[in-house]
């Protein structure tokens, strides 16, 4: 998948991105003037990169690198060899990893398997919901599978109802340092449903609250029994979670509920969640299932129903567009399982991906601890990211599935029909912002770039309870995005002739 570049190009890239000479590390940072047509044309001075950084009021570290995507020739850089938090720009690397190892047309399978014989529509043995690592399985898909089970003539299951989630390791939460209620850090396993989110809704009537927990989609909203909510007489913390009695047990502070509302919460027991919904949907078809048991090993059986995901390339395009952490972790671990046969967890899988970046992409400077970029310990250099982008440019593996980023003016208004085109992956954490990908300049040159900003000192002072929306994080992110746009405009101006 990843087309090799020539030896000469590789050497050029290695010198540009892995070298440590002062000239390569920082030059050029002085003003560059685009050539203008006509001897009498007024000179337009493009502000230097360091001037843009100083004027941005972005505190902490600013790093970037930019190069010709085809040749690897370096154009500009600042602190490009300094390791920083890449945030969700990590997902672009994960996409390359999954494409290379699994293949663009790979499809994940979720199956209903019967053990034993089937007599007169009755399964004499067990019915097993077998997760295959599909990160995009929905309630709609399980409803369809239940209908297909009925269409196959099944009316009853005499044995047990099992749910197998052993295709991937069980991970309680993507990042243990995140607040318990955030949906971007759910559990991970070989089964996922609705991105492992559950819908919590509350209403007040005559001073009393009623609550629901459901697995809603646009078409269905089945209530679930594996998640429970208790309203506690307190004002904080807003949410607490306990793993008790084989269920997700939540409590919410009465003082924050008001008259009513709704929000998504993360699922900590994905296999139970999916099995709960499948049992409801099967019951609607007249097929009653026993209480589920989650297993990580299964016996051989007959596949009665098989649901296939969209091709991996489509899944990755969706992941890069919406920056879904769960998808990144599942496809990343699936790739490692394909490479090594097994994996113990996210960090071990990310370590394998790090090794792959060195061998397949020929870059140093990626020390990742997960596949989504959520973990605070993730580190990457701008040089390494740009080196990877240059390496895969000719293969056209990544650019078509990156998100199109609008070009904006000083007031953050979108510039319609801009001569600059950006295809990139954004990254945002508290007081961290990143952007990495490709830009097409007005003269048609394609550049590979990576820009990272971050203030680790401020991040370290944020309490765990405040990490969902800390004070000042949005304004920092906005300043960082303005700086990204100004740097991109600078590079576009340099190539405007």
Question: Which helices and strands, and how do they pair?
Answer:
Layout: H1 7-18, H2 22-26, H3 49-56, E1 61-68, E2 74-78, H4 90-102, E3 109-114, E4 118-119, E5 122-123, E6 127-130, H5 139-151, E7 156-157, E8 161-164, E9 197-205, E10 208-214, E11 227-232, E12 239-244, E13 247-253, E14 260-266, H6 270-284, E15 292-295, E16 302-308, H7 312-322, H8 325-340, H9 346-360, E17 366-367, E18 379-380, H10 382-393, E19 403-405, E20 421-429, E21 432-440, E22 446-454, H11 456-460, H12 473-494
Parallel strand pairs: 5-7, 6-8, 8-15, 11-13
Antiparallel strand pairs: 1-2, 1-22, 3-6, 3-16, 4-5, 9-10, 9-14, 12-13, 17-18, 19-20, 20-21, 21-22
Helix pairs in contact: 1-10, 3-12, 4-7, 4-8, 5-6, 8-9
Defining key terms:
about 500 residues, alpha+beta, Beta-lactamase, D-tyrosyl-trna(Tyr) Deacylase, Chain: A, 2 domains, six-stranded antiparallel sheet, five-stranded mixed sheet, about 25% strand, globular
